[in-house]
């Protein structure tokens, strides 16, 4: 039995992994896949790949592309979620801010530097034509930290996955001002170069299992109810999220990577572009 470490955010996108692990679908391939939930998000996941703390990461596309260009010893092996991520833009319920246009010079709560919440703040600013040179950030680590920061006026707004944040809106803690969609696929699967060099066949086995799971995930009987209960969501919200979400079973193409890098470069998230061989494998 080969032990392999994998990490990702504790969100509904990753429920296929949890079900496959619970059903021993990796163990049936002689793989002990050990999942670690990382509520801090992409910045922490990038750090774990760099520090050899995980072998694989299910990670936001923009974050891992930027980190590999900055020297992360890993590669993208596959697109995991093809559909864009819907980032909800939130303020505290009592906030003086009423419209997105008022947030141009406001303080943005982010999980950490290099995280999706930071990078998408730049995308959002770019889409609105805001100046980004003096953007202000407050590092809050997790969504709980964001709640504390916004309530206590240490930050003004917070961007996080729309549906995972909606319970806080329903509870009257956050107020939702709008959305910002990623102009690229949401999540990819990244693997350490060490694992790719030493055990590439294990990577192919893991991808085969998860691809079989995601291909029919929406068809699992009662999955809407399971997800709603597990993530404290309204059933109608889960149904809408499922209808918008498209998992992928395909590798990243060179054309798609070029499009992603062009978008990231345009928004200032990256200041250089890499080759396909530097960033990904087929």
Note down, in words, how this protein is organized.
By secondary structure, the protein is α/β, with parallel strands linked by helices. Helices cover 40% and strands 22% of the residues. It has 12 helices and 10 strands. The chain has helices spanning 15-22, 42-50, 61-69, 116-128, 143-151, 162-170, 193-198, 200-215, 223-230, 235-244, 254-266, 276-279, and strands at 2-8, 31-37, 56-60, 74-81, 86-92, 107-110, 136-139, 157-161, 174-181, 187-192.
Briefly characterize the structure.
The chain has 282 residues and is an alpha/beta fold. The chain has helices spanning 15-22, 42-50, 61-69, 116-128, 143-151, 162-170, 193-198, 200-215, 223-230, 235-244, 254-266, 276-279, and strands at 2-8, 31-37, 56-60, 74-81, 86-92, 107-110, 136-139, 157-161, 174-181, 187-192.
Radius of gyration: 19 Å
Q: If you average the pLDDT, what whole number results?
A: 96
Question: First CA to last CA: what distance?
Answer: 26 Å
Under CATH, the homologous superfamily of the largest domain reads Periplasmic binding protein-like II
Biggest sheet strand order reads 2-1-3-10-4
Tell me the count of domains: 2
List keywords for this structure.
282 residues; single chain; D-Maltodextrin-Binding Protein, domain 2; alpha/beta; 5-stranded mixed β-sheet; globular
Which helices and strands appear, and what pairs or packs with what?
Elements: E1 2-8, H1 15-22, E2 31-37, H2 42-50, E3 56-60, H3 61-69, E4 74-81, E5 86-92, E6 107-110, H4 116-128, E7 136-139, H5 143-151, E8 157-161, H6 162-170, E9 174-181, E10 187-192, H7 193-198, H8 200-215, H9 223-230, H10 235-244, H11 254-266, H12 276-279
Parallel strand pairs: 1-2, 1-3, 6-7, 6-8
Antiparallel strand pairs: 3-10, 4-10, 5-8, 5-9
Helix pairs in contact: 1-8, 9-10
């Amino acid at each position: 039995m080969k032990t392999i470490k994998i990490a990702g955010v504790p969100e509904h996108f990753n429920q296929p992994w949890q079900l496959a692990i619970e059903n021993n679908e990796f163990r049936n391939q002689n793989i002990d896949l050990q999942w670690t939930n990382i509520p801090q998000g992409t910045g922490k996941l990038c750090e774990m790949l760099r520090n050899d703390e995980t072998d694989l990461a299910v990670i936001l596309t923009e974050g891992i592309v930027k980190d590999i260009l900055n020297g992360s010893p890993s590669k993208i092996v596959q697109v995991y979620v093809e559909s864009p991520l819907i980032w909800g833009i939130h303020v505290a319920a009592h906030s003086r801010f009423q419209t997105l246009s008022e947030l141009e010079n406001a303080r943005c709560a982010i999980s950490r530097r290099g995280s999706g919440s930071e990078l998408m703040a730049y995308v959002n600013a770019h889409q609105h034509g805001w100046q980004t040179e003096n953007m202000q950030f407050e590092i809050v680590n997790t969504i709980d930290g964001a709640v504390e920061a916004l309530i206590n006026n240490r930050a003004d707004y917070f961007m996080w996955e729309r549906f995972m944040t909606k319970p806080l809106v329903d509870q009257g803690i956050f107020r939702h001002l709008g959305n910002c969609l990623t102009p690229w696929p949401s999540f990819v699967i990244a693997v350490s170069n060490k694992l790719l060099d030493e055990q590439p066949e294990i990577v192919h086995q893991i991808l085969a299992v998860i691809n079989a799971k995601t291909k029919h995930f929406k068809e699992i009987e009662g999955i809407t109810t399971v997800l709603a209960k597990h993530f404290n969501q309204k059933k109608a919200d889960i149904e809408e999220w499922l209808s918008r979400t498209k998992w992928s079973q395909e590798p990243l193409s060179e054309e798609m990577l070029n499009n992603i890098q062009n978008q990231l470069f345009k928004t200032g998230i990256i200041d250089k572009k890499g080759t396909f061989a530097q960033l990904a494998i087929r």
